[in-house]
Amino acid sequence: MGDFVTGRWTAELDDLLLRVGHVFGRVEQRRRMRDYVRGLLGPVGRKNCWQLAEHAGHPAPYGLQHLLSRSCWDADALRDDLQQYAAERLGAADGVLIVDDTGFVKKGAVSAGIQRQYSGTAGRTENCQIGVFAAYASARGRALVDCELYLPKSWTDNPDRCRRARVAEERTFATKGELARTLVLRALASDLPIAWVTADGLYGQEWRFRHMLEQAQVGYVLAVPKSQQIKSLAGMWRIDQLFDEAPGEAWQLLSCGDGAKGPRVYDWAAAKLPVNIVFDPDPPTHDRWVLARRSLKHPEEIAYYLAYAPVGTTTAELARIAGRRWAIEECFQAAKNECGLDQYEVRRYPGWYRHITLAMLAHAFLAAMAAAAIERGAAETTRPAWLPSPWRKSGGCWQLAPPGQSPWNHAAVMR
Questions:
Q1: How far apart are CA 306 and CA 288, in angstroms?
Q2: pTM value?
Q3: Which position among 142, 253, 330, 410 has the lowest Cβ density within 10 Å, counted as fewest Cβ atoms?
């Protein structure tokens, strides 16, 4: 495994940085981009330009700051390369696209999109920026593949404020649901093989979001609030009242995937809705479902879903797709802890996109390396070690030995 980490990781990273180099028109840009990404992957305490520059051996952070702020390169082109890379390394026929947002708590009032707003990450109202993200997950691995910065009306209604933050002139107010539709459409147009889309209730309750997926013939399992209205040829109900009337035998014990402590098992109930004879083909290719997940320890805790699935899909498969939504939370945690996703100190709109896209690229590289390690039969993988530690213990003291050399040989050389 050590040979794999020190050899394959370095070669793969060099290939990836060479692959995306065309986005950066000048040699200086490409060098700074490489130093930035290597720093995001390296043992840097806080991954801002100052510490990344120190890690790379730069005398000052101004070169990396210029890369994020004034340098001329297109973050969208880098994102497209990232999605192609994720498709090659993680793509699978049953791939799931997951949409969710995360908050970045920051100080001040000049960072693009910042205001006091609710952050699910913090669990309360904070002075923060909100990013809407898309993650791709398959049996091979998971990675963040796209993002959009949410701009509240306090920004889009103030052209001078947007101009100072260098917000793109064509950018107008868009709800998080509208940003999510943009992410999904971009992903569907990419090389990523996507069979399913899943998201939490903020996005699942938007009928435009569901309608877009149905038009694209993409299956979905979307969480909805308990007040969600279900309208069909069989009648109209609130979804929680509908499942209150479900018979006991409608509930079945199913796992929605493995968690940190083993299979995540819940009670699940599901029912097909009648075919919509106006919009659906004859014979229909997909069924619409209502789905509920009930906690075993706390039966009063019930989550609700709407689903659109190919004919023949089972309840167990729907439960598995619903469980996939947690993968994006794991992506957020890994990207923040390992790749500095939230450790930026940029304030302007272009700088935010550039840092976030570079951090997503670093995270996709880690996901690809983990997938490669599993395919080689390794049970687990670790973060790359750029240089093997020279520390070796011999007897009661520590000695320094060159990589691959035992402390005994090193001692002989010293004598």
A1: 7
A2: 0.88
A3: 253
